[in-house]
Write a structure and sequence with these properties.
globular, 1 helix, Thrombin, subunit H, six-stranded antiparallel β-barrel, mainly beta
Length: about 120
Amino acid sequence: MSLEHRYSARHPVHFAVDLIYRGRRLPTARACDIALEGMRVAVTGITLPTGTPVELAFRRWGREWLIPAVVVHMGGGSVGLMFREPQAVLYHNELDAPRPAPVQPPPVAVAASRIGL
């Protein structure tokens, strides 16, 4: 049975997040994607069972955020978290954020002997 109830699309994000469990800050994690109702966070060396209450702490958009959440799934090096309350301001700021242009690979040099010179 899943606790997850997402009604908005996920959008990729990349910023540092601290997970707080029972008042202790766990090693810094990395936000991977966000929806209005939750966030997926990349972690290493952490196991949190489904239903575990945590807080997310991070600095974003000129302010400090402390968001209560609950673990809805864990696996593949990431943890899925559902916010206790939807985070409309955070979500819409992330949607409106400028996205970096895709990185294009450098042009491939072709040897002169291959092109008949």
